Amino acid sequence: MARMEPSTEQVPATARILMVDDDPGILDVVSDFLGKHGYLVETAGDAREMEQALERGPVDLIVLDVMLPGEDGLSIARRLSGEGPPIIMLSAMGEDTDRIVGLELGADDYLAKPCNPRELLARVRAVLRRAEQRGQANAIGAGCEFAGWRLDLVRRELRSPPGVAVNLSSGEFSLLRAFVERPQRVLTRDQLLDFARGPDSDAFDRAIDVQISRLRRKLDDGGGGTDLIRTIRNEGYMFTAKVKRT
């Protein structure tokens, strides 16, 4: 049932995209549109077909519907978080709480259905661009140290001062990376959104505050002994530690 949609325009394929949705009409429209813009798009109708597609070869991005038969999109995002390719979630449920849940489970972006294919194309380009930028940065420096903590940017691994591995969601990792790359500077919520998720994110997103709260809790539980993320009243947040690249 899964199929490959080749580009119909004379443009190079920039990435392999796996779209998972149980609506054949949406699969046809979106895969054709993305294909015409140079992407190789493979489609799947549920988690089983998605796994079969991933077994055939790696993909650069998954566009994942929330409401799927069998295992739903949120469960899939949780399972693939930190190990699979970037994920853009699509859902008819566009409330802030639904979007926050999706981002916290590891999705890199979240778009409400029905969506304009051109907006989805812009989100795809933004997520792939951030993934490429992370890869380029990883080639320059493998990690950093701060207040006894060690952050490996290639393995996406955080270790506490006692050496214990701390699990981070995709959103928490992106946020921590934004902080360690700009230590001891006041960063507004809008800046953090741009640094962590790119300029295509919504200008106002409560998920940033939720992720900062959870990231703080993990840093506190890790035995750092310091307030590494400080709230600057009416301005934003500051990462207080000195950061050493390794």
UniProtKB/TrEMBL annotation:
Compartment(s): Cytoplasm
Family matches, as InterPro entries: CheY-like_superfamily, OmpR/PhoB-type_DNA-bd, Sig_transdc_resp-reg_C-effctor, Sig_transdc_resp-reg_receiver, WalR-like, WH-like_DNA-bd_sf
Domain of life where this protein originates: Bacteria
UniProt cross-references to PROSITE patterns, sorted A to Z: OMPR_PHOB, RESPONSE_REGULATORY
DNA-binding interval(s): 141-241
One Gene Ontology cellular component: cytosol
Gene Ontology biological process terms from the UniProt entry: regulation of DNA-templated transcription
Keyword terms of this UniProt record: Cytoplasm, DNA-binding, Phosphoprotein, Transcription, Transcription regulation, Two-component regulatory system
Pfam families noted in UniProt: Response_reg, Trans_reg_C
A GO MF term: phosphorelay response regulator activity
PANTHER family: DNA-BINDING DUAL TRANSCRIPTIONAL REGULATOR OMPR, REGULATOR OF RPOS
Protein name, UniProt field: Regulatory protein VirG
Keyword Zinc attributed: no
Residues modified to 4-aspartylphosphate: 65
